[in-house]
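name: query_chain
kind: protein
chains: 1
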Amino acid sequence: MEMTEFEKATDSLTVTGKFSANTDINVEHYGFENTRPDKARILAKDYPLFRLHYVIGGSLTLFAAGKRIPVKKHQCFLLRPDVDAEYKTNPQDPATFYWVSVSGQKCKTYFAEMGFTESSHTVAVPKEYRRELRKAFFANFCIEEPLKEIIDSVFTANFLKIYQLLYLTVNRNKAPKQATGKRKEYVEQTLEYINRRYNDPELTIKEIADAIHIHENYLSHTFHEEMGLPFREYLTQKRMAMSYALMESGITSVSEIAYSVGFSDALYFSKVFKRYNGISPKEHLKKLHKLPPPAKY
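structure:
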């Protein structure tokens, strides 16, 4: 079912994840709801998790820290267990929204980086990120059967996409609104270089800066401003994405995958992979390919 068709045809739907050993961030549920005009007030204390909402239609009123905050289409709002808050849909224009509930030791850190604090409860999503954000939420309602075995890692990957889009949203105004032609050119050259050389464990921003004849510090600063991520973080995410692709293509050797995406140490690759996904590469591969147990002799 297409995203627009799903949103029109669905009244309310929740999908639940599996237990994850990741203590930093755990995605518990994803949901979608076309609220009814008579929907009762929803209190944060009734949901002892961090619950992020993305409103795609209608409107509602959020009551938090003694404030009455109108929330409309293209805005996100957060209910959190450490703030007394509640919301009520607009009876004349009921809200439609996606939501995700998460727990973990780094919830406050993640949501602060997305623009949410104990006194800041909403984030307006700019036009350039709206469709991608909807797709990141919707992705959890169209998971194909083989991936349902690793639904916890799929949920985490989609939440990290949401995190990245909102991080970019709240940091977009820190850089000049219109990058100069040269800045764009430098970033495009850097991205092209990464695409060609991400599998080189020795790749550094200094190497790229030398290749395009600019200062390392200037390129690092420019790349971070334009992409919303430091060079090293972007490179790691690129390597993670390529490792997922190799696993899905049928490669089952962790060492081979690690070396293919630019890690000279398979053990370090496993640590990074687990930090991003909540499970180790071996666990991910086992779920993905349903590997048989080793033969006993």
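note: DSSP finds eleven helices and ten strands in the chain.
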